[in-house]
Amino acid sequence: MTVTEKSMANAIRALAMDAVEAANSGHPGMPMGMADVATVLFSDHLKFDPKAPKWADRDRFVLSAGHGSMLIYSLLHLTGYARPTLQDIRDFRQLSSPCAGHPENFKLEGVETTTGPLGQGFATAVGMAVAERHLNAVFGDDLVDHKTWVIAGDGCLMEGINHEAVGLAGHLGLGRLNVLWDDNGITIDGKTDLSTSEDIPARYRASGWHVVSCDGHDYDDIRKALGEAEADPRPSLIACKTVIGYGAPTKQGTAATHGAPLGGEEIAGTRAALAWDHEPFVIPDDIMASWRQLGKKGAAARADWEIRLGGHAQAAEFQRRMAGDLPDGDAIKAYLEGLAQDPPKVATRKASEMALGAITEVLPEMLGGSADLTGSNNTKTSFTKPLTKDDYSGRYIYYGIREFGMAAAMNGMALHGGIIPYGGTFLVFTDYCRGAMRLSAIQNARVIYVMTHDSIGLGEDGPTHQPIEHVQSLRLMPNMLVFRPADAIETAECWMLAIQREDGPSTLALTRQGLAPLRHDVSINLCEKGAYRLKAAEGDKRVVLIATGSEVSLAMDIAATLETAGHGADVVSMPCAELFDAQDEAYKSDLLGTGGILRVSIEAGTTIGWERYTGLDGMRFGIDGFGASAPIDDLYAHFGLTVDAITPQILKKIG
Ligand SMILES: Cc1ncc(C[n+]2csc(CCOP(=O)(O)OP(=O)(O)O)c2C)c(N)n1
Ligand SMILES: [Mg+2]
To answer: Are the C-beta atoms of 648 and 654 separated by less than 8 Å?
Structure first.
């Protein structure tokens, strides 16, 4: 008997409901509802090879509705990826299993991106689609010619970030992006008409998308819609009308199937309704064989691609870029040596632009952008012409006022490979980016956030624009490196550390205001250890001043005053607290001072957390309320961040 598509889809349904039941937790409804659509996608459209999950020219498949993780786990298992094994699926949601609650890109090959926070998978896929077009423009059809497919739910489309992602994809004409919308009319609270009456197809069409719909349980109709989507030059939304929890006799079509085990009785009823009379986790040989056969169909395309790569003039450069390796040589050595000759007094945002000039010249994989603050973030260089719908070879994206969308798209580019994305906005608007920054960190994605206007130093725009808690709160985020350089040389050093870091994101917090040069020696990257002694005490050491960014020169001035008063003071510049934390104890205690030495921190932001370095008996200068609107010098005076305000307090403390 030939195996029907329905029975292949039912294998997904069975694995999903049984795994959720075994874990006593999870989301069976979505995989059961989208099983038919996914079966058609994997059999007729998706270009993939389970034996080569990292094949650079594979289609990218993003399960944006990450709660339906059992859908992707089932598909990976059935089509023949090495993992997940059946045992992995049996252990769904257990510590030992790569089948985590939501798909994690670092746990399973075939999972292109971590999803779960609704809307972000979709927005990440936009970045993957940009990466594909850009690399295609650089390396040609022979090496780069693939599509990006997304399965998204009502929630992904309802999130605010969807507006940003859809707008960007439509504007950039990303025709190889196809989104399968699980149009089941259900979310957790019940029917979608509880909370929305939006005309979603109209919104997409108005944004330059092609929209088509289908009955998500009718194979011919699904096939037709997917074919139309592939053929259309615009990005496509395929509205797949589905029944959540398809097959569950009393619960299908209801929110009850969304996020809870179906229960023994309902599962028995589902088995009967689907005519699936196999034990839990048992896939009959003929159905498994059909799936495995389907999983082999991409091998020939992959072999052809390998041959094309082998004979390609740009093969080595393509492989270097996809591997994420930097080219040989020191990208900024000459630039740094030039700086050292005549260190300029510039804002670190300007110093960042200068460093980027040198870096983007020699690193073609750098692809920049800004959320409508190009002239303020100083993110564009003469080597990065605009990336547009008409010229994808460009290396600069005008993201528009879409901070969250920009950050998620950058994740997609980094995860796609071949690109090191960087993008800017004001530091205060990291609040808008934060969900995606967190996913950069979780996913070990090399994304560089260029965040300018990093304190009250921006002056007159006032408290809404003045970051207070931002630097410190980003330091709290695991695997995020936060750099706050103090002058042009530190800025260039921090840029290189961010670029050299292959396994995670970095944030550069940069000033609007000019900063005096502090460093002259460029023989080694002093920022590498996160903190270093910029000035050693001349007199008998009583104080260690620890500062970052714009406050380092203030610390130098305070130290000079203390020395004049007969008290030796070290100044420690700490451009990256996380890198400093990673040093050995000897380095740390030598730098911070021990045994009766007063430690003082100065940073124009929250003082919370600085006890970590100053100890409870140290002193912390910063700002623990919101900022204010005034010229910069007035603000520093108002918040007590001046030599005159701080020095007497230190003198009093050391008696
Ligand atoms: C940003 C975010 N907010 C809330 C949630 C919690 N959540 C998970 S699924 C879901 C409902 C999603 O509805 P839909 O996409 O229609 O999925 P379906 O119920 O159809 O499977 C919610 C609110 C989340 N994962 N991410
Ligand atoms: Mg839904």
So the answer is: no
CA distance 431 to 442: 17
Q: Which spans in 346-429 are helix H?
A: 348-362, 374-377, 403-416
Nearest to 642 by CA among 650, 633, 651: 633
Cα end-to-end span (Å), the chain: 93
Best substitution site from 67, 115, 181, 439 to test ligand 1's pocket, by max atoms within 8 Å of Cβ? Answer: 67
Give residues whose Cβ lies within 5 Å of ion ligand 2.
Answer: 153-154, 184, 186
Q: Is there a catalytic annotation at residue 403?
A: yes
- Max distance between CA atoms of the chain, in angstroms, equals 95
Do residues 345 and 486 touch, judged by C-beta distance below 8 A? no
> Which sign does the torsion angle of CA 39, 41, 45, 49 carry?
negative
- C-alpha distances (whole Å) from 627 to each of 58, 456, 457, 638 are 49, 6, 10, 10
Q: Model-level pTM greater than 0.90? A: yes
- 477 C-alpha to center of ligand 1: Å? 24
Give the C-alpha separation, 329 to 326, whole Å: 9
Q: Which of 164, 403, 551, 578 is catalytic?
A: 403
What is the mean pLDDT of each successive set of 10 residues along the chain, which is 655 residues long? 92 98 98 98 98 98 98 98 98 98 98 98 99 99 98 98 98 98 98 98 98 98 98 98 98 98 98 98 98 98 98 98 95 93 97 98 98 98 98 98 99 98 98 98 98 97 98 98 98 98 98 97 96 97 98 98 98 98 98 95 98 98 98 98 98 95
Query: Cβ < 6 Å from ligand 1: which residues?
Result: 29-30, 65, 67-68, 116-118, 153-156, 182, 184, 186-188, 244, 258
**Is the dihedral angle over the CA atoms 479, 515, 380, 321 positive or is it negative?**
negative
Pick the residue whose CA is nearest to atom 21 on ligand 1: 30
Number of residues in the chain: 655
Write the single-letter amino acid at 636: Y
